[in-house]
Amino acid sequence: MADAKFLSDIEIAQKNVMTHIKDIASKLSIDEDDIEMYGKYKAKLPLTLIDQSKIKKSNLILVTALTPTPAGEGKTTTSIGLTEGLNKIGKKATVVLREPSLGPVFGIKGGAAGGGYAQVVPMEDINLHFTGDFSAIEKANNLLSALIDNNIQNKTNNLGIDPRTIVWKRVMDMNDRSLRDITIGLGGTANGIPREDGFNITPASEVMAILCMAQSFKDLKEKLGNIFIGFTFDRTPIYARDLKAENAMAILLKDAIKPNLVQTLEGNPAIIHGGPFANIAQGTNTILATKMGLSISDYVVTEAGFGADLGAEKFLNIKCVSGNLKPKALVLVATIRALRHHGGASKEQYNDPNTERVSAGFANLEKHIENCKKFGLNPVVAINAFPSDSDDEIQLIQQKCAKMNVKAVLAKGFANGGEGMTDLAEAVVSEIEGGKNKFTPLYNWNLSIKEKIERIAKEIYGADGVDYSKQAIQDLRKIDTLGLQGLPVCMAKTQKSFSDNESLLARPTGFRINVREFEFATGAGFVIPILGKMMRMPGLPVIPASEHMFIDDNGKISGLS
Amino acid sequence: MADAKFLSDIEIAQKNVMTHIKDIASKLSIDEDDIEMYGKYKAKLPLTLIDQSKIKKSNLILVTALTPTPAGEGKTTTSIGLTEGLNKIGKKATVVLREPSLGPVFGIKGGAAGGGYAQVVPMEDINLHFTGDFSAIEKANNLLSALIDNNIQNKTNNLGIDPRTIVWKRVMDMNDRSLRDITIGLGGTANGIPREDGFNITPASEVMAILCMAQSFKDLKEKLGNIFIGFTFDRTPIYARDLKAENAMAILLKDAIKPNLVQTLEGNPAIIHGGPFANIAQGTNTILATKMGLSISDYVVTEAGFGADLGAEKFLNIKCVSGNLKPKALVLVATIRALRHHGGASKEQYNDPNTERVSAGFANLEKHIENCKKFGLNPVVAINAFPSDSDDEIQLIQQKCAKMNVKAVLAKGFANGGEGMTDLAEAVVSEIEGGKNKFTPLYNWNLSIKEKIERIAKEIYGADGVDYSKQAIQDLRKIDTLGLQGLPVCMAKTQKSFSDNESLLARPTGFRINVREFEFATGAGFVIPILGKMMRMPGLPVIPASEHMFIDDNGKISGLS
User: Which residues bind ATP (chains A, B) (predicted)?
Assistant: First the structure.
């Protein structure tokens, strides 16, 4: 399968012969009548298939990563490949992933359906509108916006919302920088009350975070009602329920709440559902999708955004606690390239073998391994293989990991699909069957917000302590007033460093972190300490990806990545 | 079935037992493998099912109406009911309709899937996201917007577009008046170039008009490339193709171009596809959906927005000429209520029987009948029955119609479904089998824009002539420069009167119409003379419909209309 080097992801995906989705369902003992097909290769799964007794017996595997380079280290590719590998060694495994956002498909990032011979298909559909979940989330978000501005506009039914306090923004799943900062309601009395506003990209919507945190349809509706909008002129907090918005919003999400079934290139089941930001939100698929996966197979491979300091921490402390999920194994994805980067290589030197740099860069991986153990989980390191990796570098990593009692396994899913992932699959299964992993969250939600942040900063980031800006101290008082002390914290920090300073690579020490301000997602149920400037609406590059896309008269696409 | 009075539309729809969509397809001799199911009750039909030889043999029936009251006279309900009636008398008939817009569902208007016992189902899905077509159109529209603003922002690749000349607006399928008039690109150099902009509701997007005019996927792409955006600083016109946007936009529309199959309450086929505005656009479903209907059944019932002076005129002169479609029959929907209105009844008097008013109001229907005959089509009048209609009033209409050699038939689809529509079905079939209808367009596209407008104004509206504002005269020069004289005209006029003055009811005479300005849809392929202020983004009412909506824990919806 050496042609992975020569074929683009979309070419590999298009050469693949897909299995009808009813046959994928059938392999999972799901009746054709129980799924809602969206064409021949996508289906929605009803929530009634979630089965608590099966969840308990199944094995949840989290795929996370070391501190990444800007290109990412291949968590999705590794998750898909590991699932192929598990099935290859005779285990019934399903991969459960986030849905890609449409906007970045036309920007720099491109889609997010894996790569090479470790992809989920139909790749084009997954990267485009898929089953309409993002669009439904967008509509629910923007209905609430329209209801807010309509309430301000009309004299009767008016709640007295102070337009200057509104924190709820509109969203659009498009890389559109011109919508970041806008003025709405212009043009006279018929067109609303003028005020500042802006659009975020759809994955940054709290509705997305809510959908991913919801335990049931009932819970979804309640969470939607709990969304904080702003204050009245006399400082009363206003929630979505005050606008009687939660039923209409839930109506718009009646199908979006159902997890989506697709397949991997090797015809194994993939559930793809929800895709919240990994900085201002939890960065992992819906709780319902994870539970669905656990209900229909013996092994579930899932992932969380960015490095383990962000993705795994939130996955374990927020999602697992909230959803009562107990991961049995943890895979830490590393690339030799990223280790060189942490060892001081410049971007131009990423592909140059250099054991000294890799050895120095290992400090980053070492800290992540230590962190995983703090959750009671001994990780397996997956070295996502690149052609430029040298044997010396790989052996070095394996030796250093072995000293920490951790297996480091070469993962060749990109080039070889499941065949290249059986070693990793065996290592993961052996870790689970060893039975030593006992998941424990890092903190108790009952701690104060400040205590929770301190815990994460010291234990996970390795910081000496936490400083708070004046704004953050004010915000903490607001959090108190609104009664949000018991919520978990969803850290919004750069993914490029353990610290909040993106230039500190490897394993920084002797630093403090700075909480600049807080946001809170009262619907989703977490408080967000903001440690830096967070991008919520990307832009397009000078030459947008759209310029190189092509679709022929029969609907065959090229140039999508 | 007297409970139609007591049950809401959604209650009737929910009590109905739907047939699996594969069985609906099977009745049409379409193989299950050839459709793309979206759940059990919706499917997309591939364009390969369109068959020119079958189209020629099938019978196209256009349902239009007299000049309506603000509530509308029930064209959709009549179209669906007539289809049930035709099937009841043994004819294979399909109804082909527009897709409802989501925004108005939360506003005053509500959904648009028929009413009473003449509905298409699943009503909730059709009125909500359906198969995602509107969302895809929205994304294609807004990708072009993002590409425009990105091009203005960046120095390299810059086309020199003058931001003040940009006519392309963003869209959102939401009633959101605060987005009508906005300023974008604020907040510093990273956030784009500040300029005035605004959002229209999605049905007002030219992408919607294009999808509805497209003859094939190839044609769609070409039309998308032809969208006019604005001028450069040196007055060169800029089109979407100059931004290399048409492929990416077409990729976003790859599924949206396929017509959607659903069913009527009585299990007959319904194709629902596309929904452009009836004022600034053509107000009728896609050409491809109409051709699909004609390819799979012997009779196709379809409709066009507003009264016959707008909907039928555009349907016949733009859509039929462009798509080479030849309607065999025309149904003019009238209500006694609307005739009372044209005869001088106030809104409070709409339900009071009054033969004098109905007799005076008949002037309106009379003019519409005369107009239909100008297209070579002798209409059948469908009196959409209301409980407040008196026998005297009905007989009066029937007698007056008979004098014009036109049958006027009581249509009871709302209360009785197909059973109440067999008389109308018989009358329509007899009109078709009579063979006297010979469709001829009113004008030749080769006439000048002014000649085309004059033709419509005098022949259809009954105006004495046409006046042009200074702006309109300037715009006509622009139309000349851009080489658009050969396009048909898509009149943007009030639907409340034959004239451009909405207070002139019945059959006004001695008036002239005023063209204030022109717009042009170079992608869709028509020039739009604007005769009044056109609403392109509705608002929500003081108490939005969303406040009364409810969805239970099992996903059952109430309060949707």
Answer: 69-76
Which residues 172-211 of chain A have a CB within 8 Å of chain B?
Answer: 172-188, 190-193
Residues 6+ apart with CB under 8 A from B164: B195
Give the side-chain half-sphere CA count within 13 A for B200: 21
Query: Residue B95 and residue A476: Cα distance in Å, rounded?
Result: 60
Walk along chain B (561 residues) and give the pLDDT tens digit of each residue: 344 457 888 889 888 999 999 999 999 999 999 999 999 999 999 999 999 999 999 999 999 999 999 888 999 999 999 999 999 999 999 999 999 999 999 987 666 789 999 999 999 999 999 999 999 999 999 999 999 999 999 999 999 999 999 999 999 999 999 999 999 999 999 999 999 999 999 999 999 999 999 999 999 999 999 999 999 999 999 999 999 999 999 999 999 999 999 999 999 999 999 999 998 999 999 999 999 999 999 999 999 999 999 999 999 999 999 999 999 999 999 999 999 999 999 999 999 999 999 999 999 999 999 999 999 999 999 999 999 999 999 999 999 999 999 999 999 999 999 999 999 999 999 999 999 999 999 999 999 999 999 999 999 999 999 999 999 999 999 999 999 999 999 999 999 999 999 999 999 999 999 999 999 999 999 999 999 999 999 999 999 999 999 999 988 999 988
Element (H, E) at A416: helix A413-416
From CA B53, how far away is CA B295, in angstroms rounded?
8
Q: What is the longest distance spanned by two Cα atoms in chain B?
A: 74
CA–CA gap between residue B551 and residue B409 (Å, rounded): 40
Tell me yes or no: is domain B4-131+256-433 CATH 2.40.160.20.
no
Q: CA dihedral in degrees (A403, A406, A410, A413; nearest 10)? A: -170
Calpha distance A200→A177 (Å, rounded): 9
Strands (DSSP E) contained in B327-398 are 329-334, 380-384
CB atoms B172 and A247 under 8 Å: no
Instruction: Identify whether the C-beta of residue B161 lies closer than 8 Å to the C-beta of residue B235.
Output: no
Ligand-binding site membership of A69 (annotated): yes
CB of A221 within 8 Å of any CB in chain B? Answer: yes
What are A353's two structure tokens?
């073998």
Question: Where does residue B391 rank: exposed (0-12), middle (13-18), buried (19+ CB within 10 A)?
Answer: exposed
A156 touches B at CB < 8 Å: yes
Residue pair B429/B87 in contact (Cβ under 8 Å)? The answer is: no
Query: What span, in angstroms and rounded, lies between the C-alpha atoms of A104 and A106?
Result: 5
**Minimal-distance CA residue of chain A relative to B255:** A555
Under 8 Å CB-to-CB from A508, ≥6 apart: which residues?
Answer: A462, A497, A498, A499, A501
CB within 8 Å: B147 and A539: no
- Angle (CA) B435-B441-B445 rounded to 5° is 155
Decide: B79 and B97 in contact? Cβ < 8 Å: yes
Q: Where are the domains of chain A?
A: 4-131+256-433, 133-252, 449-530
DSSP state of A40: S
What are the beta bridge partners of residue A303? Answer: A63
Q: If you count residue pairs, one on A and one on B, with CB atoms under 8 Å apart, how many are there?
A: 222
Question: Which CA distances in Å does A208 have to A203, A213, A253, A320, A524?
Answer: 6, 9, 10, 18, 9
CB-closest option in A40, A106, A245 to B36: A40
CATH architecture of A449-530: Roll (3.10)
pTM beyond 0.80: yes
- Alpha carbon B423 to its chain centroid, in Å, reads 26
Cross-strand pairs, A498 = none
CA atoms of B83 and B411, how far apart (whole Å): 12
